[in-house]
Amino acid sequence: MKSSQYVHFFFSNEPLFFLEDLMTRQGGLLWVDKYRPKTLETLDIHPEWTEKLASLCEQGTLPHLLFYGPSGVGKRTRIYALLRQVFGIAIEKRQVEHRFLKVGEPPKEVELTTITSAHHIELCPADVGYNDRLVIQEIVKEIASSKPIELGNVHRGYKVVVLHDIDEVSKQAQQALRRTMEKYTSCCRIIMSAESVTRVMEPIRSRCLGIRIPCPKKEEIEQVLQKIAKKEGLVLPDCYANQLVTQSKGNLRKAILLLQVGRAIAYPFSQQQQKKNEEEEESWISSQETGWDWERLCYDIANIVIREQNPKQLCNIRNKLYELFCHAIPGDMIFRKITLHLLRMMDEEVAPQVCHWAAHYEYGMKRGSKEIFHLEAFLAKVMYIYYSHIHTQYSMAWMDD
Q1: The model's pTM
Q2: Distance between CA atoms of 331 and 314, rounded to whole angstroms?
Q3: How far apart (Å, rounded) are the C-alpha atoms in residues 390 and 386?
Q4: How many domains, in total, are found in the chain?
Q5: Where on the phi/psi map is residue 151: left (φ > 0), alpha (ψ -120 to 50), or beta?
Q6: CA dihedral angle for residue 247, residue 250, residue 253, residue 258, rounded to 10 degrees
Q7: DSSP code at position 215
């Protein structure tokens, strides 16, 4: 891999699937899995929440829990550590199952991947699309109907259902989950994770103990990176550690993956290489024509909105949006990237209005089912705002003359 490609990895916000693929092909575990803490005592970040969770475990019973925070801050790791504290080493004997559930009336078969142990089951309901409501009801009913297994000194009167990305499921599924939580609360506990708690219904939030996991501090991320580098026998200069921390933007998982990629293609690190990387970084940032294909499409869409505001261009934008969705780019990522480009291109006077309507339409997009409708409506609104702004400026300039 060329140095310029590494710089693009280093300074891109592209999802890190390509990084995982690179390391998997080279053999061995990803460092994010290899060095994942397994107990509450070994967690390196947010010690205040570690103490509170340990206190909950000492009480002998758990309430329903909702972990929420940005991606890559350790929500799943903390859930695993909590289950390990409650149920002991038996929780580590997990197995991945690819199941086919028959749900609904008439029965239809739904494919689902779960991770199970003797004490818990975890899944991502959003993976099954519009069948999420039926899957949640079936899984919770199934695990609640089986008696908890007593192993060794572990005597718990309940099992645990872990639901990831609960903010991505439909409103109907969340309503069904609320009723299910009430019905099986005596023999089943629900632990959920989400990025945005605002997309979780109030009745569910009120029945859970909310635990906000914020982005770790820069010092905490750097400490984790140095710890991993030491275990791998690497020399990680402070300058590179600072670069990783800065570009990860609080995403600990991204920082660790980038460190592993750097180890694979650019180690040992040198001062000359650092200077070259910094120069290529500046070149990459200054050029709007580089980047991934989907990023260039987002830039083109923002550029069309600024350049010309008419129905013909709106149809052109629709075609580009369809192209993005055909390549499985998530709607929220498209929304965020286009909005950032628009804010960089527009005058400061209209930026507050753009931010207001971006929040409005993104909220509608999360509650609706057709993401492209909300994206088109947002871009049409921005066209109108910018068109009005330009003509107001022209009118004022003409009056001054």
Answers
A1: 0.74
A2: 18
A3: 6
A4: 3
A5: beta
A6: 10
A7: P
Both 191 and 337 in a single domain? Answer: no
Q: How far apart are CA 56 and CA 66, in angstroms?
A: 14
Strand partners, 98: 113
Distance between CA 127 and CA 122 in Å, rounded?
13
Q: Which of 186, 212, 238 is the last residue of a domain?
A: 212
Most confidently predicted of 26-30, 75-79, 153-157? 75-79
Average confidence (pLDDT) over 376-400: 83
The burial of 159, by beta-carbon neighbours within 10 Å (0-12 exposed, 13-18 middle, 19 or more buried), is given as: buried
- What is the mean pLDDT of the segment spanning 8-12? 43
Cα gap 159→182, rounded to integer Å? 15
**Contact predicate 171/338, CB 8 Å:** no
Domain end, chosen from 212, 229, 254, is at 212
Is the pLDDT at 162 greater than 70, yes or no?
yes
pLDDT of residue 270 exceeding 80? no
Q: Which of 15-19, 63-67, 284-288 has the highest mean pLDDT?
A: 63-67
Q: Are residues 282 and 302 in the same domain?
A: no
Beta-carbon-side half-sphere exposure of residue 137 (alpha carbons within 13 Å): 13
User: What local confidence, expressed as pLDDT, does residue 302 receive?
Assistant: 92
193, 234: one domain: no
Strand-strand pairing, 108-116 and 95-103: antiparallel
Closest among 379, 375, 330, 382 to 351, alpha carbons compared = 382
User: How far is Cα 203 from Cα 375, in angstroms, rounded to an integer?
Assistant: 29
Element (H, E) at 153: none
- In the chain, the amino acid numbered 148 is P
Structure tokens at 26: 């080279």
Contact between 30 and 17 under an 8 Å Cβ cutoff? The reply is: no
Rounded Cα–Cα distance for residues 200 and 335 (Å): 20
Cβ atoms 143, 181 nearer than 8 A: no
Query: 385-390 long-range contacts, Cβ below 8 Å, gap at least 24?
Result: 385/350, 385/353, 385/354, 385/357, 386/305, 386/306, 386/309, 386/346, 386/350, 387/309, 389/347, 389/349, 389/350
Rounded (5°) CA angle 110-111-117: 115
Both 202 and 247 in one domain: the answer is no
